[in-house]
Amino acid sequence: MDVIRARTAGFCMGVGLALQKLEAALQERAADTARICTLGPIIHNPQVLEDYARKGVARLEEPEEARPGDMVVIRAHGVTRQTEERLRAGGARVLDATCPKVKKAQLSIARATAGGAALLLFGEADHPEVRGLVSYAGGPAYVFGDMEALEALSLPEDRPYVLASQTTQDRALFAVIERLLRGRLPGLTVLATICDATRERQDEARSIAARADVMVVVGGRESGNTRRLADVARAAGIATYHVETVDELRPEFFAQKARAGLTAGASTPKSLIEAAEERLTSL
Ligand code: SF4
């Protein structure tokens, strides 16, 4: 079977860097390091997480679970300022693997709101990256996930405003929001915090789905960006299979299909993508 493999399949820059830092920490582990830990899952991929658990990486859910001397890796989408302080206060060493683009957004928000300006943040309020970004605001923060929520906000006019976005939001929609708010809030400061990795991956999945008979999306079932990628492919009207490993690829999925599209989420390792490509090619 012919396979069209997406160029954008697999780790984005931020996830790749975070895993490199964790690998380096494991290799250079100092004798006085009690444990190497991650705060929450380092990525949403069960196969990678099992591998790190086997290598002795402990997974903490709360900063207070860290013991003095532990090295705690902060994952790509970052944590709140307070979480980092709680880790350090407990005696842990912090290895900051926050994606450089998320870190830049955090620091831009801190600088732009240091004088007390209010932050208007376009994003999902309960997403860890958003909670982290909000914690860097020097004034009040308003988070909205869509136009309706934005229009429902009552914004006092006695202070300056700063508009920013969660890194994975849609750039076109953000431009519409910016135009609307510039009309309402003269002197609005707008920060460029969107990362195009997610959109590029979705655009490529859409384009491949238009040329394939069936689509395979590889990645963790808990991975939001992988699930959205499968939705994009399904919306193109072809049969789409979201699988975590190659063993889930059953030959009957591909009966009478000549060409398969293959993509993967930002947390899927290359080895799983390559295994899927090999299996599909052999069908
Ligand atoms: S999607 Fe972009 S901002 Fe988010 S971790 Fe990946 S590279 Fe960084």
TrEMBL record:
<feature type="binding site">
    <location>
        <position position="223"/>
    </location>
    <ligand>
        <name>(2E)-4-hydroxy-3-methylbut-2-enyl diphosphate</name>
    </ligand>
</feature>
<keyword id="KW-0408">Iron</keyword>
<comment type="similarity">
    <text>Belongs to the IspH family.</text>
</comment>
<feature type="binding site">
    <location>
        <position position="77"/>
    </location>
    <ligand>
        <name>dimethylallyl diphosphate</name>
    </ligand>
</feature>
<keyword id="KW-0414">Isoprene biosynthesis</keyword>
<feature type="binding site">
    <location>
        <position position="127"/>
    </location>
    <ligand>
        <name>(2E)-4-hydroxy-3-methylbut-2-enyl diphosphate</name>
    </ligand>
</feature>
<feature type="binding site">
    <location>
        <position position="12"/>
    </location>
    <ligand>
        <name>[4Fe-4S] cluster</name>
    </ligand>
</feature>
<keyword id="KW-0004">4Fe-4S</keyword>
<dbReference type="GO" id="GO:0016114">
    <property type="term" value="P:terpenoid biosynthetic process"/>
</dbReference>
<feature type="active site" description="Proton donor">
    <location>
        <position position="129"/>
    </location>
</feature>
<feature type="binding site">
    <location>
        <position position="223"/>
    </location>
    <ligand>
        <name>isopentenyl diphosphate</name>
    </ligand>
</feature>
<feature type="binding site">
    <location>
        <position position="225"/>
    </location>
    <ligand>
        <name>(2E)-4-hydroxy-3-methylbut-2-enyl diphosphate</name>
    </ligand>
</feature>
<keyword id="KW-0411">Iron-sulfur</keyword>
<protein>
    <recommendedName>
        <fullName>4-hydroxy-3-methylbut-2-enyl diphosphate reductase</fullName>
        <ecNumber>1.17.7.4</ecNumber>
    </recommendedName>
</protein>
<feature type="binding site">
    <location>
        <position position="44"/>
    </location>
    <ligand>
        <name>(2E)-4-hydroxy-3-methylbut-2-enyl diphosphate</name>
    </ligand>
</feature>
<feature type="binding site">
    <location>
        <position position="225"/>
    </location>
    <ligand>
        <name>isopentenyl diphosphate</name>
    </ligand>
</feature>
<feature type="binding site">
    <location>
        <position position="167"/>
    </location>
    <ligand>
        <name>(2E)-4-hydroxy-3-methylbut-2-enyl diphosphate</name>
    </ligand>
</feature>
<keyword id="KW-0560">Oxidoreductase</keyword>
<feature type="binding site">
    <location>
        <position position="267"/>
    </location>
    <ligand>
        <name>(2E)-4-hydroxy-3-methylbut-2-enyl diphosphate</name>
    </ligand>
</feature>
<feature type="binding site">
    <location>
        <position position="223"/>
    </location>
    <ligand>
        <name>dimethylallyl diphosphate</name>
    </ligand>
</feature>
<dbReference type="GO" id="GO:0051539">
    <property type="term" value="F:4 iron, 4 sulfur cluster binding"/>
</dbReference>
<keyword id="KW-0479">Metal-binding</keyword>
<feature type="binding site">
    <location>
        <position position="267"/>
    </location>
    <ligand>
        <name>isopentenyl diphosphate</name>
    </ligand>
</feature>
<dbReference type="GO" id="GO:0046872">
    <property type="term" value="F:metal ion binding"/>
</dbReference>
<comment type="function">
    <text>Catalyzes the conversion of 1-hydroxy-2-methyl-2-(E)-butenyl 4-diphosphate (HMBPP) into a mixture of isopentenyl diphosphate (IPP) and dimethylallyl diphosphate (DMAPP). Acts in the terminal step of the DOXP/MEP pathway for isoprenoid precursor biosynthesis.</text>
</comment>
<comment type="pathway">
    <text>Isoprenoid biosynthesis; dimethylallyl diphosphate biosynthesis; dimethylallyl diphosphate from (2E)-4-hydroxy-3-methylbutenyl diphosphate: step 1/1.</text>
</comment>
<feature type="binding site">
    <location>
        <position position="44"/>
    </location>
    <ligand>
        <name>isopentenyl diphosphate</name>
    </ligand>
</feature>
<feature type="binding site">
    <location>
        <position position="195"/>
    </location>
    <ligand>
        <name>[4Fe-4S] cluster</name>
    </ligand>
</feature>
<dbReference type="GO" id="GO:0051745">
    <property type="term" value="F:4-hydroxy-3-methylbut-2-enyl diphosphate reductase activity"/>
</dbReference>
<dbReference type="GO" id="GO:0050992">
    <property type="term" value="P:dimethylallyl diphosphate biosynthetic process"/>
</dbReference>
<feature type="binding site">
    <location>
        <position position="99"/>
    </location>
    <ligand>
        <name>[4Fe-4S] cluster</name>
    </ligand>
</feature>
<dbReference type="InterPro" id="IPR003451">
    <property type="entry name" value="LytB/IspH"/>
</dbReference>
<dbReference type="Pfam" id="PF02401">
    <property type="entry name" value="LYTB"/>
</dbReference>
<feature type="binding site">
    <location>
        <position position="267"/>
    </location>
    <ligand>
        <name>dimethylallyl diphosphate</name>
    </ligand>
</feature>
<feature type="binding site">
    <location>
        <position position="127"/>
    </location>
    <ligand>
        <name>isopentenyl diphosphate</name>
    </ligand>
</feature>
<comment type="pathway">
    <text>Isoprenoid biosynthesis; isopentenyl diphosphate biosynthesis via DXP pathway; isopentenyl diphosphate from 1-deoxy-D-xylulose 5-phosphate: step 6/6.</text>
</comment>
<dbReference type="GO" id="GO:0019288">
    <property type="term" value="P:isopentenyl diphosphate biosynthetic process, methylerythritol 4-phosphate pathway"/>
</dbReference>
<feature type="binding site">
    <location>
        <position position="225"/>
    </location>
    <ligand>
        <name>dimethylallyl diphosphate</name>
    </ligand>
</feature>
<feature type="binding site">
    <location>
        <position position="127"/>
    </location>
    <ligand>
        <name>dimethylallyl diphosphate</name>
    </ligand>
</feature>
<feature type="binding site">
    <location>
        <position position="77"/>
    </location>
    <ligand>
        <name>isopentenyl diphosphate</name>
    </ligand>
</feature>
<feature type="binding site">
    <location>
        <position position="77"/>
    </location>
    <ligand>
        <name>(2E)-4-hydroxy-3-methylbut-2-enyl diphosphate</name>
    </ligand>
</feature>
<feature type="binding site">
    <location>
        <position position="44"/>
    </location>
    <ligand>
        <name>dimethylallyl diphosphate</name>
    </ligand>
</feature>
